[in-house]
């Protein structure tokens, strides 16, 4: 007899063939010597093998077993040999396409390189060269389409086509063709997503003082001197100051880079974004406390804790004046945030509700506490609207600050000797770059991460470091009276420590450290 076995891999991407031939044996009695006891023994006199499989027969068997794709013709001859397992068919793996790639022809803030120790050369931040009219600033490298695959059963294996990107020309740019953006004016290039632009640069070859007046410019501003006391700079894109800032007010929609010290000044990077982020923070806290208020009112009504005759509005007024005073403080912040956002004279409906239902004797007019759910819904919708309209975060980089207020819609990087009694707030992270730089006094607040070198002093100057509930705080050295706050949990360091890491675990704050 003859046998043909087909083995298909689990992923059906390869098939193997094994052939076995069993011959017919003819036997005769073996001649033996004469003996009084004779043992009969047989021996093969002839072996008759079955006919070998032909290539056509193998193909037919493969087809009967649904192996129809990727037949390896040159292996058909090998497969007819006895007891040899031969690869007879191979599938084709699907090949995903390559995404379009957009190459910027200039260095951006995010292109700064780190060495092996994670140190960044921040002196090179301001070295982005301006472009001339006609210069190419971006090129799109077109990707490829995917190629579908097949398994040995002929089943189609899907592939992914490369992601297609559309190159866009913003202010100060034009499309030379679908794959090339060139500068239409002289200026400083930038990118927002896939949109490239060139902003005009207002360059001041000296100090900003009474002789120049306050500076307000729609594009980039570069100041090669100091910003003197009482001066204001409002910049529609990136702001670069080579030297010191003293008792001044700087606002930029884009990144802010200050090469010197900042003393008793207010710095705001991100412009409108910073205000929206502050509003989102206040609105979220307002919504959380409103939800808690409704839960407490429901419990009081269920168990008649204040008597059966108490109306909902009266209960809410009592709670606002006692247990939920924070709601009144947050109400003032929310009103300020939303009034600033209003583009016309019409008052926001959330502001109207707060003024009529939360201020003074307003809570008494609330007939049913479930009315607050509608306010919570409106507040949550406003948060969603602000978050959707946020632009890309920007960064603020300074060498040193003292008695100052620093805000950024992205990150804050302190590249010099540190900060002293300043309030620093960043949506993403706050990082001290130089070894030995000091954070002494004030409050540092970031959404995600704070990385410090030295915090506080041997005299126990109180310094507060705060991040969101998912955030982390790191410090090489932290002295006593340093306050770590993660989410709503807070811990005060009681002794000088090194390698400090503060974070939340199972809802509790954990401060890992080695005591000095």
Describe the structure.
With 516 residues, the protein is α/β, with parallel strands linked by helices. It folds into four domains: 2-31 and 42-90, no CATH class; 101-198, no CATH class; 272-388, no CATH class; 411-516, Pectate Lyase C-like (3 Solenoid), CATH 2.160.20. Helix content is 19%, strand content 36%. The protein contains seven helices and 36 strands. The strands form six sheets. It has a 22-stranded mixed beta sheet that branches. Strands 6-7-12-11 form a four-stranded antiparallel beta sheet, with no helix packed on it. The chain has a three-stranded antiparallel beta sheet with strand order 1-2-5. A hairpin with a 2-residue loop joins strand 35 (497-505) and strand 36. Helix 3 runs antiparallel to helix 7 (371-388). The protein is elongated.
Write the layout of secondary structure elements.
Layout: E1 2-8, E2 14-21, E3 24-29, E4 42-48, H1 55-64, H2 76-79, E5 85-90, E6 101-104, E7 136-141, E8 149-150, E9 156-157, E10 168-169, E11 173-177, E12 180-183, E13 188-192, E14 195-199, E15 201-204, E16 215-217, E17 220-223, E18 232-235, E19 239-241, E20 245-246, E21 249-252, E22 256-258, E23 261-263, E24 266-269, H3 272-303, H4 312-321, H5 325-341, H6 349-357, H7 371-388, E25 396-402, E26 405-408, E27 412-426, E28 429-432, E29 438-446, E30 449-455, E31 463-467, E32 472-478, E33 482-486, E34 489-492, E35 497-505, E36 508-515
Parallel strand pairs: 10-14, 15-17, 16-18, 17-19, 18-21, 19-22, 20-23, 21-24, 22-25, 23-25, 24-26, 25-27, 26-27, 27-28, 27-29, 28-30, 29-30, 29-31, 30-32, 31-33
Antiparallel strand pairs: 1-2, 2-5, 3-4, 6-7, 7-12, 8-9, 11-12, 13-14, 32-35, 33-34, 35-36
Helix pairs in contact: 3-4, 3-5, 3-7
């Amino acid at each position: 007899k003859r046998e043909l076995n087909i083995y298909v891999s689990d992923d059906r991407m390869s098939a193997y063939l094994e052939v076995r031939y069993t011959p017919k044996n003819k036997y005769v009695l073996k001649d033996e010597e004469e003996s009084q006891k004779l043992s009969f023994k047989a021996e093969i006199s002839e072996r008759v093998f079955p006919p070998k499989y032909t290539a056509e027969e193998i193909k037919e068997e493969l087809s009967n077993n649904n192996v129809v794709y990727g037949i390896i013709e040159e292996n058909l001859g090998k497969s007819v040999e006895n007891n040899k397992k031969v690869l007879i068919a191979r599938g084709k793996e699907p090949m995903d396409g390559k995404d379009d790639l957009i190459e910027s022809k200039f260095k951006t803030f995010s292109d700064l390189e780190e060495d092996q120790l994670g140190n960044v050369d921040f002196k090179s931040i301001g070295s982005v060269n301006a472009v001339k009219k006609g210069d190419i600033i971006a090129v799109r490298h077109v990707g490829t389409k995917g190629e579908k695959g097949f398994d040995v059963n002929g089943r189609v294996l899907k592939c992914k086509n490369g992601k297609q990107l559309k190159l866009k020309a913003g202010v100060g740019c034009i499309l030379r063709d679908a794959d090339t953006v060139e500068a239409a004016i002289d200026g400083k290039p930038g990118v927002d997503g896939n949109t490239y632009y060139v902003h005009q640069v207002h360059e001041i070859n000296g100090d900003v003082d009474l002789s120049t007046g306050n500076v307000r410019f729609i594009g980039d501003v570069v100041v090669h001197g100091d910003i003197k006391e009482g001066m204001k700079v409002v910049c529609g894109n990136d702001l670069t100051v080579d030297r010191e800032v003293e008792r001044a007010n700087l606002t930029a929609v884009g990144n802010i880079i200050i090469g010197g010290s900042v003393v008793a000044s207010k710095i705001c990077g991100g412009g409108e974004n910073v205000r929206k982020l502050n509003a989102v923070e206040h609105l979220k806290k307002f919504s959380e406390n409103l939800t808690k208020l409704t839960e407490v009112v429901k419990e009081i009504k269920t168990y008649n804790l204040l008597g059966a005759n108490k109306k909902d509005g009266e209960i809410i007024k009592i709670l606002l004046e006692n247990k939920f005073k924070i709601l009144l403080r947050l109400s003032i912040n929310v009103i300020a945030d939303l009034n600033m956002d209003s583009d016309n004279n019409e008052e926001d409906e959330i502001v109207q509700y707060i003024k009529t239902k939360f201020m003074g004797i307003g809570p008494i007019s609330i007939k049913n506490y479930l009315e607050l759910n509608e306010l919570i819904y409106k507040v949550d919708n406003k948060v969603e609207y602000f978050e959707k309209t946020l632009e890309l975060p920007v960064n603020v980089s300074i060498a040193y600050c003292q008695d100052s207020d620093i805000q950024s819609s992205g990150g804050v990087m302190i590249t010099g000797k540190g900060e002293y009694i300043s309030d620093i707030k960043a949506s993403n992270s706050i990082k001290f770059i130089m070894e030995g730089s000091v954070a002494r006094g004030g409050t540092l607040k970031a959404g995600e991460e704070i990385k410090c070198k030295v915090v506080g002093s041997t005299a126990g100057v109180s310094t507060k470091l705060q991040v969101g509930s998912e955030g982390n705080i790191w410090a090489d050295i932290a002295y006593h009276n340093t306050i770590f706050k993660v989410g709503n949990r807070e811990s005060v360091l009681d002794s000088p420590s090194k390698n400090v890491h503060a974070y939340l675990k199972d809802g509790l704050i954990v401060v890992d450290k080695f005591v000095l």
